[in-house]
Amino acid sequence: MLKRKGPYSEESSDLCIHDVAQPRPLKRLRIANAACNPPFRDILTNISSEILLRILSFLSSSELLDISPTSRRLYRLALDPHLWREHYYERFVLPRALRIPGFRIGGAGGTRLQYSARRAVWADGRKGRAPNDEFLKESTKNESVDWKRQYKLRHNWARGKCAVEEVSVRDASEEGEGQKRTLIKVVEGIAITADSESGLRAWDLRTRRPTAQRNFCEGDESDDSTPTSLAVDENSSATEVDIIVGFADGSFGLWRLNLEQQELTRRYRHEKSCNGEIIAVACGHPYVLTATTAGLISLYTFNRPATAPPDDITNSASNNSESLSYGTVEQQAKPRDVGTILPAPYLLTSLKSHTTHLPIALSIRRMSSSVSASIAYTFPVRNGLCIGVQDLLITPSPDGSGVDKLTSRLASTLPITASGGVDTIQTHGSRPEFMTLCYSHPYLLATLPDNTLVLYLCTSTAKSLSLSSGIRLWGHTSGISDAEITPRGKAVSISTRGDEIRVWELEGRVGGSSIEVRPTTRQPSDNTDSPTTAPRAEWEDRRNWVGFDDEMVIVLKETRDGRESLMVYDFT
User: Fold this and answer.
1) Would you list the DSSP string of 507-546?
2) Where is region (Disordered) located (predicted)?
C-alpha cells in the first residue's frame, strides 16, 4: 500500500535549491601581525642567569631534574649548588634540627633556623670537630661541596638504592679452615683488614684496590700471632689513621696509616700475656683499652708520668664499684720497651670480673676537658641477662707531668628476654644470648637471637650515668649476624644468611622503622642496558661482619669453601 505524502511546501523546496546552487563560504584567513611572529631565537637567551636561578629556586627537586635536559643552559643552571643546598637542608637537615632543643622555626612555612644553644651542631653531620680544626680549614679552601651529589647520596640511603661489587680478600685454603676470619674496620672511605696470612692491609673503597700492606711480625719475631680484634682511632687527623690490633696470645700492636704516602708504620708491639686472647680493643691517643677472655680490662696511656703514683690513686677507678662491675686488681708489671716509635705505655688501671659474658664493646671518646673510656658488657642475673656500662672518666693533670685522675660511673639495664618484651621478667628460666653489642655514645645497640635488636640511650653527666628503657626494633626476617651504629643514631644490620641488609635512622625516634637495602649490579661500560637486580645470595654463604661510612656499606662474606670477600654496597 502506498503511503500518503505530506502536503508539498514551496518554502522547503526553495531552501534545497539554494543549498545546491551556492557552495559554503571558505574559512576566513587570519592574517597575523608581524609583532606576533615567533622569535628566531630562544626567549631564555635574553634573560640573565640570575633571574633564571631565581625562577628555578621555586621548583622542586623533581622538577629541576625534569627541566635540566631541555637545554644546555638550563642543564648548567640546574646544577647550581645553591639550589640543591636549599633542597638538601629542607629535606634532610631541617627535620633533624627541629628535634634539637633551642631551634625555632621561622614564619609560616619558612625554613629559617635560629640557634640559641651554646654548642654548635654541624648540619652536614661532622663528627664534632672544632671550628679551628686544620682539617676544616683545608677542606674549606680546597673543597667545594657538590650539593646535588650529597642530595642524591642521602636520597639513595633513604630509598635503599645502591650498587654492589665484590672484592676478594682471602682465597680458600685447606690449612686455613681452623684459622680466625678476617677482621675489618671502615673509616672515611678506607677499609682496614687484618688476617694471619696477609697481615694488615688498607683498601681504597673507591678504587676497590689495596693501597698499603704490612706484616704483623718483623725481623726475628715469631709468626704465630692470629689477630682477634681490631679498632681504629676515628679522631685521628685527616691524613693519618691510628690502628690497634689485638692477638690471640694476649699481645696487641699499634700501627699508623699515612693516607698521603699510602704507607703503614708500626708504632708499638706489646708483649704476650697469660690472661687469654684479646677480644676487644679501643684506642684514642694516648690511651689504649683492651679486654681479654679472662675478664681482664686494662687501660694504658703512652703519656708516662714523671713519678710513680701511689696505690690509692691507681685503685680509685673502682672504689665505688658494685658487684655487677669490674673490680680493680693490683697493678701489673710495666711492658718492656721493644725500641719502637712509641715508648712502652703506662698501666693506669685494670678491672677484673668473673661474671661477665661475651660480647664486650669498648670505646674511647674525647670531651672538652676529659676523656671517657667506656666498657659495655653483659652479665647474667636470675631472670635473664643485663647490659652494663662502666665509664672510666680520665682527667689529665693540668701540667701534663702528673698522674691522670680516674673516676668510675656505672649503669645497667633491667633483665632482657629474647622472646618477649624488653625489661620484662622471664618465667621459663631460659636466658637469651646477645649476638653482638655495639656502643657509640649515646647509643647502645644489642642484637638478639629472635631476629630483633634492642636500643638504649645512654645519658652521661659530670656526676651520673644512666641508661634508658630498651626499645625493641623489628624488621629482620632471619638471624642477625652483626650491626653497627654511629653517634648520630644511624645503624646498619645484616642477616647471617641471605642478603637482608637494613638501614635504621634512630635519632629522635621512639620506634624503629628500617629500610631494606635493594642493591643492583653494575654493568660494564660498553653495555648500555640499565643496571640489573643483584643475584640472590647463596644460602651457604655467611655474612660475618658489617660496617659503613657516609657513602658505602661493607659486608664480609664467607663462602662454604672458606673464601672471604668484601661486598661493597655503593650509594653514590
Assistant:
1) TT-SS--EEE-EEEEPPPTT--SPPEEPPPPPTT-EEEEE
2) 310-330, 514-538
Q: Is 162 exposed, middle or buried (0-12, 13-18, 19+ CB in 10 A)?
A: buried
Contacts of 363 by beta carbon, 8 Å cutoff, 6+ apart: 282, 373, 374, 376, 439, 440, 441
Calpha distance 257→505 (Å, rounded)? 31
Q: Is the pLDDT of residue 502 over 80?
A: yes
> At 536, is the pLDDT very low, low, confident or very high (cuts 50, 70, 90)?
low
How confident is residue 31, by pLDDT bands cut at 50, 70 and 90? low
Looking at the predicted structure, is the pLDDT value of residue 110 above 70? no
Q: Sign of the C-alpha dihedral, residues 317, 321, 326, 328? A: positive
Length of the chain: 572
- Please tell me the distance from the alpha carbon of residue 499 to that of residue 55, in angstroms, as a whole number: 45
What mean pLDDT do residues 479-504 have? 88
Give 429-459 pLDDT, tens digit per residue. Answer: 455 577 889 999 899 999 988 888 999 999 9
Report d(CA 197, CA 178) in Å as an integer: 13
Nearest CA to 193 out of 245, 253, 549, 201 is that of 201
Query: Do the strands 161-170 and 518-521 form a parallel or antiparallel pair, or are they unpaired?
Result: parallel
Task: State the burial class of residue 520 (Cβ atoms within 10 Å of its Cβ: 0-12, 13-18, 19+).
Answer: middle
Percentage of the residues of the chain whose pLDDT score is greater than 70: 69
Residues 175, 295: Cα–Cα separation, whole Å: 30
* CA-closest candidate to residue 145, choices 163, 112, 121, 122: 122
Calpha distance 390→326 (Å, rounded): 8
State mean pLDDT over 295-301.
93
Domain ranges of the chain: 47-94+118-128+145-158
User: 47-94+118-128+145-158: what fold?
Assistant: Monooxygenase (1.20.1280)
Quick one: pLDDT at residue 499? 77
State yes or no: pLDDT of 133 exceeds 80: no
User: Residues with Cβ < 8 Å from 204, sequence gap 6 or more?
Assistant: 189, 190, 210, 211
Q: Please report, in angstroms and rounded to a whole number, the separation of the first and last CA atoms in the chain.
A: 89
Pairing of strands 287-292, 296-301: antiparallel
pLDDT value at position 180?
63
What residues does 469 pair with on adjacent strands? none
Amino acid, res. 347: L
